[in-house]
Amino acid sequence: HDVVEIVDIGIGGMTCSMCSDAVKKALWTAFPNHIVALSVSLATNMAHVEFRRDDSAVCTTQLIAEEIEDIGYDVTDILVTTRTTTATTKQQPTTTNMVVVELAVGGMTC
User: Fold this and answer.
1) What are phi and psi of 81, to 5 degrees?
2) Residue 34 and residue 55 in contact, taking contact as beta carbons nearer than 8 Å
3) What angle do CA 90, 95, 99 make, to 5 degrees?
């Protein structure tokens, strides 16, 4: 079974296309073998990340959020959806779990 976690992350502090490009570059660089799809929208201040989840814990929702914070942006909210696929069925029903995260981050500048 392949488990793909779909995460929509609110990002604070992006002011231009260079900011959204920086988030994309950081995530692709940190998790090159796990990310399946990635988009970052300056207009909505959201990152949409689809990644393979496995037992290694190399790529998790928390690590993705930390990577975004490590490059100087705020993570404002996280919505997680999980999709399981098998060889015989293309896609099983999707399960959505809301994760509420409160983070206090200060002193960051672009």
Assistant:
1) -130, 140
2) no
3) 140
